[in-house]
Structures are given as C-alpha cells and as structure tokens.
Amino acid sequence: MFKKTKGRIVGAIAASLILFMITILVVVYLSSYYGARNDNREMLKRHVTEFGEGGEGPEGRPAPPDKDMAPPDDERRRDEGAFRLATFYTVVIDENGGVTVDNGNSSVMSDEELVEAAKEAAASGKKSGKVSGLMFMVEERDGDTVVAFMDNTVTDNNMRTLLRNMLIAGGASIVVILLIAVVMANLIVKPLEENDARQRRFVSDAGHELKTPVTVIGTNTELLGRDIGENEWLSNIIYENERMSHLVTELLDLSRAERAEASPVEVDLSRVVTGEELPFESVAYERGKALVADVAEGVRVEGNPNQLRQLTAILLDNALKYGAEGKEIKLTLRREKKSAVLTVENYSDEIPTDKLEHLFERFYRADEARGDDGHYGLGLAIAKAITDAHRGTIGAMWRDGKMIFTVSIPVLK
C-alpha cells in the first residue's frame, strides 16, 4: 500500500519540479534565441539603411550614426563592436536585371551563390526572412532592389551550444530532482508507515489478549448454567460473549492475513473456489436466494490455500448477508491474460461512490444501521489483506443494481 503511495508522491513532486525546470529552460532559450534574432535583424536593418548613404566608415563599413541619436556609451560600444564583427553581403539588382555584388571581402559565399539567394529572396515577396542559411532583408531604392544578407553562422552555433548545455544541465537536474523526490517521499510516508505498524501491532496484541478472558467467561457461564439452569441474564452474557469471541477471531484472522505467515505454495484456485462455493449453495437456498457459479478449470496461483478459501468465503458471506431477497448471487472465476479474476455479484441498494472507497478499511460499515448483525466491518479488510499478501488487487463497484467485488491475483505460468 505504502509503495504505491510513495510512487504517487515521487511522481507528483518530480512532475511539478521537472515541469517548473522545463518552463524555466524554455523561457531562457526562447528569450535568448529571439533576443539574438532581433539584434541581428536590427544590425541588418542598419546595414541596409546605411548602404550607399552617408559615405563609408573605416574599412569600407558605413559610418556610424549620429552620436546624439546613439544609445549610452557602454551599449553603443557593444553594439558597434558586434556590428563591425558581423558579416554582411549585399546584392543590388537594377531595373534592367543587372546585378552588383558586395561580398564583404568574404570567401565563404561565392558571388554566384549570393546572386541565387538574392533572386530567391526577391521572388519570395517578403521584406525579410531567411534563405540558404542567411538572414535577408529586401528594400526598393530608386528603381533598384537591394537585397542584404547577414551570416548567422556564429549565432546559430552559439544557440546550438546553449541548447546542448541546457539539455545536459536539464538531464542532470532531473536525476537530482528524482533523488530529492524519493527522499521527500520517504520522509512523508515514514510517519504513516509507523502509524500503520502500530495499528497492526495493536490489532494482533488485542486479539491475543482478549482470547483468554473470552474463553474463561464462556467456560464459566457454561458451568454456571448447569447449576442454575436457564436464566435471562445468563443468556445475555452468553450472547455477548459469543459476539466478543467472533470479534477476537476476526482480529486474529486480520493479523495473520496482514503478516502473511504461511509460505506460498502452488494452489488450484478453481478447486478452492468450488469447494467453498458448495456449502454456500444450501445457505443461499435457506435464505431464499440463488447462488450461481461459473468457475473455469485449471486456474492455478501461488499462495496460501487456507487464506484463499477464507477470501472466497468472506465475499460469498458478504453477498448472502447484504444481497437483495429472492435475487441471484453470481460467483465467477476466470483467467484473463496473466491474472486469475474472481468476481462475486449480488443485487443491492445503491452504495455511493464515496462509501465504496472505504469498504476495505478496518471497522468501516457502509450501512450503520447494520450494527447488530454480529459483524464489525473486518471481513472486507481481511479480504484486502489476503489479496495484498498474494500480490493482487481487490475492488468494489455498484453498477446496474448490482454490487460487484472483483479480485485479481497473478497466475502461475
């Protein structure tokens, strides 16, 4: 039970932290990517604006803009340095189809490649975009078409490096997050495990401590009855002592089921279920009900045969006690893939979903009005403990007027 709880806690903590981390990484990467792209677009726009205007600056570069319009010194120096280090290509196509190429004294792109890229950019009808791995910007000027390119190789490499580093850091962070989640889950569940262990120890101790006085009371009342004969008060003592004896028996059964004391052996579950079903047929008949069984042959599991008999008996007894009068009770055992599935169905009044979730808890009773039926809400708790000990699952549902209990246990290969 607590393994599943730990798994859910680990999943919840890890999912929350990983989602938060991924969000941060995506925001950082996208902000860096779009920031770099916008910076490159601004530099390309400046190159297009200054191309052929205002003379040329040092080394053939356009002169920087008016200092009065420039940003602060630090930012201006940084932007100016980036601008001067950037690689630009310019292709001018005149109205007669003549082409002039300025490759910025670079041997990376040939004039022919630049002309092809310029024609493709001009034909696209877009003012800006990307073609052949180059960022381009198109401007019409005095009947000529100016197509400017900026080489994004450095920027693209930087973004790939950033993405790779972020993935490495993210992978390492996920491992750390999972370790933290496991530690936190253990810390959260530990008090619950200790409390559950104390409860189980109490059930076991209480059952053993009560067994002796209940036996003594039963023996003494029997001897006293022989001396004084039938007596109303003595009959009340005997009745209540029998109820207490039944409670002690259920407490000890629950303790044994939870501890799974017996070693598992190969069990013919079909035979076990059939053997338990036969005696209940006569009981059902006496109560005006019909017990119908559909048990598949050769369903074998590994487990404790006595506990599996008890599991079957608990479900059948529950169906007989709470099933509608004059209605059919159906017992089914079948093999589904790698599981043996035992199902018990009986007609009953609807049980709300919020109560179904608690049916297998100790001392829980879905109908508080049934307080004097000699049962204490331990039967289904014992059934669940037996199922858990056999690495199986048990569930309850109400559908189409029927209460359905389903047990699934792994079968032998």
Low-confidence segments: 54-65
Number of strands: 12
CATH superfamily of the domain at 262-410: Histidine kinase-like ATPase, C-terminal domain
Q: What is the arithmetic mean of pLDDT?
A: 81
CATH topology of the domain at 262-410: Heat Shock Protein 90
N-C termini distance: 25 Å
Please explain how this structure is put together.
The protein is an alpha+beta fold. Among the domains are: about 85-150, Profilin-like; about 260-410, 2-Layer Sandwich (Heat Shock Protein 90). Helices cover about 55% and strands about 20% of the residues. The strands form three sheets. It has a five-stranded antiparallel sheet, sandwiched between helices. It starts with a helix and ends with a strand.
